[in-house]
Amino acid sequence: NDFPFLYLGFHGHEEAIYLGDEPVGLQQLKLKLADKCHGKVLFLASCSALDTAPDDLKKFCRDTKAEAIVGYTRDVDYIEAAAFEIMLFSELSKGASIPATHTAVARRYPDLSRHLGFTSATSRSVKAEN
What we know:
The chain is α/β, with parallel strands linked by helices. The chain is built from 5 helices and 8 strands; from the N terminus they run E-E-E-E-H-E-H-E-H-H-H-E-E.
């Protein structure tokens, strides 16, 4: 409860993260986190985990009560992703809305945002750099 972010750094693929050798789909993760992420930003630092329908991401936020879910729609190099995440966390710490933060990061780091497929979703909107 003391932290504004839930950072999950795992291997991933389309619509899933890997916990060890087992894939956990976004739907499974949503069930495990239902009503437990009130006001938090969930960061899935995993290849392609947010490669899913925008409506599914919005529903994920509604069902978990998360302020937002952020991550990638593409396979990412972990060094590039780590550098991007430091810059993203710096922006997130400023307290702006998630859509405003997404816009700021995408404008400041457009090539890297597109290369990673940076995506953010709230219960009302989805922004994706593709």
